[in-house]
Design brief:
The complex is a heterodimer.
Chain A (H helix, E strand, L loop, with lengths): L4 H4 L2 H11 L3 H8 L4 E5 L5 H6 L3 E4 L9 H6 L6 H11 L9 E5 L3 H16 L7 E5 L7 H22 L5 H26 L7 H9 L6 H15 L9 E6 L6 H8 L3 E5 L18 H10 L10 H15 L3 E7 L9 H10 L3 E8 L9 H13 L1
Parallel strand pairs in A: 1-2, 1-3, 3-4, 5-6, 5-7, 7-8
Chain B lengths: L18 H22 L5 E3 L6 H5 L4 E3 H10 L3 H10 L8 H9 L5 H4 L10 E5 L5 H12 L2 E5 L11 H4 L10 H22 L5 H27 L7 H12 L5 H19 L10 E6 L14 H4 L1 E5 L1 H9 L9 H9 L1 H7 L3 H12 L4 E6 L10 H10 L4 E5 L10 H17 L5
Helix pairs in contact in B: 1-11, 1-12, 3-5, 4-5, 5-7, 9-15, 10-12, 10-14, 11-12, 17-18
The chains are: A alpha/beta, B alpha/beta.
Bound molecules: iron/sulfur cluster (SF4).
Iron/sulfur cluster (SF4) binds next to helix 5 and helix 7 of chain B.
Chain lengths: ~375, ~450
């Protein structure tokens, strides 16, 4: 399973996979043609606005980093491994060749620290190759005062983008960008139906590629390719095997998914930001632009970092039901602790609904570093087959 | 060496020399008993995280307990091993957020009313926290559920503007410290909190009462300022952190009361008398040490380990110095809510954000003629990550050596006093003494 031959042999999927694998390709071309690239750290940076400003959004990822010299120098040990690598690339000059600016969203505590540290590095060690940065100080508590505050925050980001791009963002720019992003989300949601179907035709690994390639290519092209792929994928063979929902740390690549799917299970949904959470809510063009952006990012399905336990319990129950999963796998990287507080209540609630669970906590990064993972997965998935 | 404190017989207890510490200790017991009696009679009772603007509840005369104070009491009573065991039993990890999760863990204890510290925590009807880290809201919600309390949360915003030398601007020119929109928003949040409390308790919030509370706090903290300055300028130091941390922290949780202001004055007078009598805590003082990080609640005696051998005295901790520099807001009458906003939103920034924390530590280190800094960074708290690199660099660039080590302020299970002592001794010998300063 994982990424199957039918997918690899498909021209459209191959194109998405190309962008998913060579993540700098489109951004480099964009820059070469005189455009500006905005790196996004955190999953709540409004792509719509960056695109409306005529710039290219590029999601920062950890990838494989052979050294962590800068991260070890500046970051305390309790920064999680993924953020450590992202930070390394932001401070050792690697990303300076790829991005012009950096936008960080308040999607988790860790990123607030990263923002403060980067800002301090820029101030006290200006020779370091840290790009110009802006922080998007979202508040996720759902009350009117927080919504109003978020509108202020979005306006600040809007102005910053105008400064970076050197041009005004008009209503037309915004509406056009938001429509493209909405179209893309609609296309992704459509193809994800094939993943959630009673007999799935798209695997979790394939789904990650389809979704994740959007972060590294032109959105209009992504939407078109995804729509095209939907027609092809309808004809892909059905997948059998236990249906698993994955929750916990974000998976920036397909490594974990492939391990799970190679054991004969299929990941029919996830709630992290490199998966379906990305397409959870559209930008409502019936609202004014700032309100539309606030609505979209503030009112999406609850993230594991910025929500109460009760909200996360309900969210997981809801999502598991929506995709018809029979089991939930919790997978949490070391030092990514917040979700650990949700887990016991979530497991209890899932158990009451007859959903089996298995937790892998304090995991090392990358996935391959965890030698006990494979046998653990095998036992769990076998138990589901029985 | 047994690295598990809970198996040791009775650990060495710290020697405290101040009357004010004993008085505060006795007072808090009496106060807690009074609070319990009020709660038993059916009054609303708040449980607050330390960063919540407690002044509002004080002004409304709603009894409350502060989470970090209570965690320290639990740690001092050596309850942590039992509580973390309970977390484990219920499927929670027992190695996370020890400081903030102690009270939640306690709420899992069916015997709490019998064997909990001081007869256990009465059930709060209100639990309030701020979202200054990802885990806080989750832990507080779990805690609130177990106690049947209503949960209320307040947000946290990040500064865009960071003027240096916050401690100079804080008392009078606090408008200049923050982006104005942050202050506006914090005032809105205070108003929302007040509305919630009025609806919940049926009590009216009286702005005049808040002015009174704020002025009492100014009075109390001004005594800390005098005390801090006195200790800084007296060599050998009249007292150590073992004396001051508890005396100050216990009274800080009572801030806004007449008792606390008077207690702060008595603390000053007691130390002043020591100075006048030329009494010092460690007469052979040769080295002055600064303690950065939260208090080592489960092993206060550790601080005194280096006095005899090296004449090395831990004479500075943030507890007294924050009182001196971070709390005073003059001219409260003009806009009491805004003054309060300017206090509570800054605490995190002052302590946990470079360069504000680093600059202040350096300023304090110079003022206190510090020879070396021992800096405890907790392993399992994201909020306590405060740019230790920048702090260390700022201090060391100024010629003050820094030892950073990992430890936990309340979880005694991971503490190995012998190893830690060795680490600090080595630091004193190689970095401070041989480092050429003395
Ligand atoms: S991360 Fe730190 S501040 Fe937050 S709940 Fe845990 S121990 Fe408390």
């Amino acid at each position: 399973m994982s990424i199957r031959v039918c997918a690899r042999d498909n021209k459209t999927f191959r194109r998405l996979l190309e962008y998913y694998s060579d993540r700098e390709k489109a951004a480099r071309l964009f820059r070469k043609n005189g455009g500006k690239v905005v790196g996004e750290l955190g999953c709540d940076v409004p792509d719509e606005l960056i695109i409306a400003a005529g710039m290219f959004p590029y999601r920062i990822y950890a990838g494989e980093c052979s050294h962590l010299i800068e991260a070890d120098r500046y970051l305390e040990y309790s920064f999680d491994p993924v953020v450590r690598m992202q930070f390394e690339k932001l401070t050792d000059g690697t990303l300076n060749n790829e991005i012009d600016y950096l936008a960080i969203s308040n999607s988790t505590d860790t990123l607030i620290r990263i923002y403060l540290y980067l800002k301090e590095i820029k101030r006290s060690e200006p020779e370091k190759p840290v790009p110009d940065l802006e922080f998007i100080d979202w508040l996720f508590t759902r009350r009117l005062i927080h919504q109003t505050r978020n509108e202020f925050t979005v306006r600040l980001f809007w102005e910053k983008l105008e400064e970076w791009s050197g041009r005004k963002i008009t209503y037309k720019d915004f509406a056009e960008a938001a429509s493209i992003c909405n179209e893309d989300r609609v296309a992704i949601r459509e193809i994800m139906k094939l993943r959630r179907a009673y007999k799935p035709r798209v695997t979790g690994s394939e789904a990650l590629v389809i979704i994740g390639s959007a972060f590294y290519m032109d959105r209009r092209e992504h939407a078109a390719l995804t729509r095209q792929l939907y027609e092809d994928a309808k004809k892909w063979p059905e997948i059998n095997g236990p249906r698993i929902f994955l929750t916990g740390s974000a998976q920036e690549n397909t490594e974990l998914y492939e391990l799970i799917e190679n054991e004969g299970a299929v990941i029919v949904g996830e709630d992290h930001d490199w998966g379906e959470r990305f397409v959870n809510r559209d930008c409502n063009l019936g609202y004014s632009p700032v309100r539309a952006v606030v609505d979209q990012y503030m009112m999406r399905e609850f993230s594991s970092k910025k929500a109460f336990v009760s909200q996360r319990v309900e969210a997981l129950d809801r999502e598991v039901e929506a995709c018809g999963a029979e089991a939930v796998m919790f997978y949490m990287n070391a030092f990514e602790e917040a979700a650990s507080w949700d887990m016991p209540s979530q497991r209890k609630s899932l158990a009451a609904r007859g959903i089996k669970t298995r937790a892998f906590t304090k995991m090392s990064y990358p996935v391959s570093k965890n030698s006990a993972l494979e046998p653990g997965l095998k036992t769990f998935i076998e138990s589901l087959k029985g | 060496m047994n690295n598990d404190n809970k198996n040791n017989a009775e650990p060495v207890r710290a020697q405290k020399s101040l009357k004010a510490t004993a008085v505060a200790g006795a007072y808090q017991k009496e106060w807690f008993a009074g609070l319990k009696a009020r709660v038993e009679k059916g009054e609303d009772f708040g449980y607050l995280n330390a960063d919540v603007p407690m002044e509002i509840l004080r002004a409304m005369d709603i009894p409350f307990v502060v989470n970090q104070w209570w965690a320290a009491i639990c740690a001092a009573k050596r309850m942590a091993p039992k509580y973390y065991g309970l977390l484990n039993e219920q499927g929670y990890r027992d190695d996370l957020c020890s400081y903030c999760a102690t009270a939640f863990a306690e709420s899992l204890d069916p015997d709490d009313k019998v064997s909990g510290p001081w007869g256990g925590l009465p059930d709060p009807t209100i639990a309030i926290t701020r979202l200054t880290c990802d885990c806080q809201s989750k832990i507080f919600e779990l805690f609130a559920k177990n106690h049947g309390s209503e949960l209320y949360v307040m947000e946290n915003t990040q500064p865009r503007r960071v003027p240096p030398n916050w401690w100079e601007l804080a008392p009078d020119r606090w408008e200049e410290l923050y982006d104005p929109d942050r202050l506006d928003f914090a005032v809105e949040e205070l108003k929302a909190l007040i509305s919630f409390l009025e609806a919940k308790t049926g009590k009216m919030f009286d702005i005049n009462k808040l002015i009174e509370v704020m002025n009492l706090i100014n009075e109390q903290e001004s005594w800390y300022k005098k005390t801090r300055d006195l200790i800084a300028e007296t060599q050998p130091a009249p007292v150590t952190v073992v004396d001051t941390i508890n005396a100050v922290m216990q009274a800080q949780w009572q801030r806004g009361t007449r008792w606390a202001a008077d207690h702060a004055k008595s603390l000053y007078e007691e130390i002043k008398a020591f100075v006048d009598q030329k009494r010092s805590s460690v007469p052979n003082e040769r080295l002055r040490l600064m303690w950065l990080g939260r208090g080592l609640w489960h092993d206060f005696a550790f601080y005194q380990n280096f006095e005899e051998k090296y004449g090395a005295v831990f004479m500075w901790s943030m507890y007294l110095a924050m009182g001196a520099d971070a709390y005073i807001r003059n001219n409260v009458e003009a806009d009491p809510l805004r003054a309060l906003a300017a206090r509570y939103i800054g605490m995190e920034d002052f302590l946990h954000m470079p360069p504000w924390n680093a600059n202040w530590f350096l300023h304090e280190a110079k003022h206190n003629r510090i020879d070396g800094v021992v800096y405890m960074v907790p392993e399992n708290c994201m909020q306590a990550l405060e740019g230790s690199y920048f702090v260390k660099k700022t201090l060391e660039d100024a010629g003050i050596p820094v030892l950073i080590f990992k430890a936990d302020p309340v979880d005694a299970r991971k503490w190995n006093r012998e190893t830690m002592t060795g680490l600090v001794e080595d630091f004193i010998e190689t970095r401070i003494i041989m480092g050429g300063k003395k």
